[in-house]
Write a structure and sequence with these properties.
Blueprint (H helix, E strand, L loop, with lengths): L2 E6 L2 E6 L24 H13 L4 E4 L6 H9 L4 E5 L3 H13 L4 E4 L3 H5 L4 E6 L9 H7 E11 L2 H4 L4 H8 L2 E2 L5 H18 L3 E11 L2 E10 L1 H8 L2 E7 L5 E4 L13 E8 L6 H9 L10 H14 L8 E2 H7 L7 H8 L2 E4 L2 E7 L3 H10 L1
Parallel strand pairs: 3-4, 3-6, 4-5, 6-7
Antiparallel strand pairs: 1-2, 7-10, 8-13, 9-10, 11-12, 11-13, 14-16, 15-16
Helix pairs in contact: 1-2, 8-9, 10-11, 13-14
The chain binds S-adenosylmethionine and zinc ion.
Length: about 375
Amino acid sequence: MNLIEITEGKAKLLVPDPKAYEKDGKFDPAWLPVFYNPKMVFNRDVSVIITSLLKVKECAEPLAASGVRGIRYQLEAGVESLFLNDINPLAVSLMNQNSRKNHINAVITNGDASSVLYSITAQLVDLDPFGSPVPFLIPSLNAIRNNGYLAVTATDLSPLMGSAPNACKRKYIGENQKLSFNKEAGVRILIYKIIQEAASLDLAARPIFAFFRDHYFRVILNIKRGAKLADSLLDNVGFYIECSVCGFAVVEKNRIGSCPRCNGKTIIAGPLWLGSLWENSIIEQFYANLGSFQYLYTFNRVKKFMQMILQEMPYQTTHYWNLTSLASKRKVNLPKMEKFIECLGKASRTHFDELGFKTSKSFDEILECIKTS
Ligand SMILES: C[S@@+](CC[C@H](N)C(=O)[O-])C[C@H]1O[C@@H](n2cnc3c(N)ncnc32)[C@H](O)[C@@H]1O
Ligand SMILES: [Zn+2]
């Protein structure tokens, strides 16, 4: 393997040299003999901060590739006991080298994630697969200690964002057509799937931090034992319904085939999670403790991102709206976002979409501001 040394966070790591594995001047991390994606640094930086805030001492990373994530959790987030695994023997040899290089104390295995997860327990299981995390959910949930955490990255955007409705039905149970606010629908379909898989084991999986960025969703959930707790989460489920004609959108417990305002055809996503995406105290602590993470390469991006999440937090159980889609359906020029939000008053931008906004105002009030801004 052609290796180079890189620094990420406080770790010094050997990873495959991207230049040696380019094809026709192009690069895809999946072509490397051991996966390493420099574009995921933001995801790992945010995860390091949260793992440290949650005071996680014991972490399992069953799909660890170069080991970068788990190694950083031990170096930067206070994780003491670390379990790393990968099915690829080259990855295992590289994570062994990287662990030694960073004086990491870890148990490292070379096996199938699902089977190794049945032989361990951990406070946090961090799942970072190629594509969908669904095949690994049950074994991961099974390995998590009571009141522990599951962290999940999902890069299978086509089923989750409505471009592959059949794949969504197969993997996530849901019906998923492409809503104008499909990024939020996607993360909520993913969360509902995790809640349901957890409920089948009498576990309650409550999201405490969820976001969309670049080409992935990331969700962290608190996992507690208890059938009743699991039942109460399953009550908070429904459908996003959007009119393809007038742009009206509504959240319902059941599917509605035509728009209550104009009788136009509706497009539907769900069943999906309708509850909170963030635990307020964690977001506040995250922001308050950012000062200790100024060394991070993505520090300014993380800070900007958290400022955005803080703004949208008061509206976290209402879905965002897509300003471009509404303006085009109402056949008006696209208003300037700042002016439009000022007009609405109780509203904010959203991290989900540059052209999205969240508000507690009614659809009629939104339309009025679109006309006048
Ligand atoms: C997206 S990469 C993980 C990246 C890593 N967590 C990081 O932050 O750089 C997914 C890894 O899962 C491994 N993998 C795929 N299927 C697996 C399985 N069934 N059991 C264990 N590892 C598997 C692949 O070899 C690959 O290294
Ligand atoms: Zn309508």
